[in-house]
C-alpha cells in the first residue's frame, strides 16, 4: 500500500508555480493577481480565504481580499463582481461560498465572467470541461487528477466508481475520468444515495473516489484487493484530542481499508492540500492564456 501524500505534492506544485512567476517577473510579464470576496464571518470561510491569500504570497502572486458584512445586498455584491470582471489588473477572482441566504449563489456565480472564474463554477466552464474544451476545472476534481498523474496511477480502461453526485466534485470528476486523456479514459460509474446494491458496484472498482460527505462510509468489505482509493470527505467531527475541539474525518474507514489498497489518500493531508494549489494553477492559467 502506498500513501498518496497530498501535502508533499502540493508543495512541489507550489514550487513549480513560484518558479514560473519568477520567470514571468524576469521577462517583465504580468504577475498573476487573484481577488477573493468574503461575505460575513463564517469560521470555515475565514480560514479557507486566509489560506488562499497566504498561498498567493508563497508563490509570488498579488492578491486582494474584498470583505463585506453579512447584510450586504445582492445588488451591492453583483456590482463588485461587475467591477472585477472589468478590472484589467485582476486575472481571476472567487466569491467564497456559502453566501447568506438572502443572496442567490447561482446568480452571483453566473455574474462572474467565465474567463475570470478560477473556481470553475460558472456553467460555461462546467460545460466546456465536460466536452473537453480548455476551461477552469474546479479545485477538488483538478486536485484529484493531479494526484493520479503525479503518482503515475494507471487509469486507462479502469473501472472507476465515484460515490457522490455533487456539482462541485462528483459530477465534474466523473466527467473528467471518462475524457479521452490521461488521467481519464476510465469506465466510470456514479453511485449516490439512491443506488441499489452500492456495495456490489463499488467492490468491482479499480479506482474509488469517495465524495459523499459521510464519515467512514467506505468500509473494507466494499473494496477490491489492490484498488486505488481517493477520499474527498472532510467532515468536521467533535474531538477531545484537538485544541479546536474538532477534527477532520474522511469518507473512508482508513484503518481497515488501507491494507487492501494499492494507493490511498489520507484525511487530512490527501486531496485537501491540493485544492488551493488547483486555484493557484487556474489563476496562473487565467494570466497566461485568455480563452
Ligand atoms: N466554499 C467551500 N469550498 C469553496 C471553493 O472551492 N470555492 C469557493 N468560492 N467557495 C468555497
Contiguous runs where pLDDT drops below 50 for at least 5 residues: none
Strand segment count: 11
CATH topology name of the largest domain: Rossmann fold
Q: How would you characterize the largest beta sheet? A: 6 strands, parallel
Strand content bin: 15-25%
Shape summary: globular
Number of domains: 2
Summed over residues and divided by their number, the pLDDT gives a mean of: 97
CATH class call of the largest domain: Alpha Beta
Q: Label the CATH architecture of the largest domain.
A: 3-Layer(aba) Sandwich
Structural class: alpha/beta
Give the N-terminus to C-terminus distance in angstroms.
41 Å
Strand order of the largest sheet: 1-11-8-7-5-6
| Individual helix count | 10
Order of helices and strands: EHEHEHEHHHEHEHEEEEHEH
Could you estimate the helical fraction of the residues in percent? 25-40%
Whole-angstrom Rg? 19 Å
Description:
There is one protein chain. It contains 10 helices and 11 strands. It has 291 residues and is of the alpha/beta class. It folds into 2 domains: 29-114, Rossmann fold (3-Layer(aba) Sandwich), CATH 3.40.50.10860; 139-272, 3-Layer(aba) Sandwich (Rossmann fold). Helix 2 (43-59) links the parallel strand 2 and strand 3. The model has no long low-confidence stretch (mean pLDDT 97). It binds guanine. Guanine binds at residues 94-97, 119, 139.
Notable traits:
291 residues, alpha/beta, Rossmann fold, 2 domains, six-stranded parallel beta sheet, three-stranded parallel beta sheet, 10 helices, 11 strands, globular, binds guanine
Amino acid at each position: 500500500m502506498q500513501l498518496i501524500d497530498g501535502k508533499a505534492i502540493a508543495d512541489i506544485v507550489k514550487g513549480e508555480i513560484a518558479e514560473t512567476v519568477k520567470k514571468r517577473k524576469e521577462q517583465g510579464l504580468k504577475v498573476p493577481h487573484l481577488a477573493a470576496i468574503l461575505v460575513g464571518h463564517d469560521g470555515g470561510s475565514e480560514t479557507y480565504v486566509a489560506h488562499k491569500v497566504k498561498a498567493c504570497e508563497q508563490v509570488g502572486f498579488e492578491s486582494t481580499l474584498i470583505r463585506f458584512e453579512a447584510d450586504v445586498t445582492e445588488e451591492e455584491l453583483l456590482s463588485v463582481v461587475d467591477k472585477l470582471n472589468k478590472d484589467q489588473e485582476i486575472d481571476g477572482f472567487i466569491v467564497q461560498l456559502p453566501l447568506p441566504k438572502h443572496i442567490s449563489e447561482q446568480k452571483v456565480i453566473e455574474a462572474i465572467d467565465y474567463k475570470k472564474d478560477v473556481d470553475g463554477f460558472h456553467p460555461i466552464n462546467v460545460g466546456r470541461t465536460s466536452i473537453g474544451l480548455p476551461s477552469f476545472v474546479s479545485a477538488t476534481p483538478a486536485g484529484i487528477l493531479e494526484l493520479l498523474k503525479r503518482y503515475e496511477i494507471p487509469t486507462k480502461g479502469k473501472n472507476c466508481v465515484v460515490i457522490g453526485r455533487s456539482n462541485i466534485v462528483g459530477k465534474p470528476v466523473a466527467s473528467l475520468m471518462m475524457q479521452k486523456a490521461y488521467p481519464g479514459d476510465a469506465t466510470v460509474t456514479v453511485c449516490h444515495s439512491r443506488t441499489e446494491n452500492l456495495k456490489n458496484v463499488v467492490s468491482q472498482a479499480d479506482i474509488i473516489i469517495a465524495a459523499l460527505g459521510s464519515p467512514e462510509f467506505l468500509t473494507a468489505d466494499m473494496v477490491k484487493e489492490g484498488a486505488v482509493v481517493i477520499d474527498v470527505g472532510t467532515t468536521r467531527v467533535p474531538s477531545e484530542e484537538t485544541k479546536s475541539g474538532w477534527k477532520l474525518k474522511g469518507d473512508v474507514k482508513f484503518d481497515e481499508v488501507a491494507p487492501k489498497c494499492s494507493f490511498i489518500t489520507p484525511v487530512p493531508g490527501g486531496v485537501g492540500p491540493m485544492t488551493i494549489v488547483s486555484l493557484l494553477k487556474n489563476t496562473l492559467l487565467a494570466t497566461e492564456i485568455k480563452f
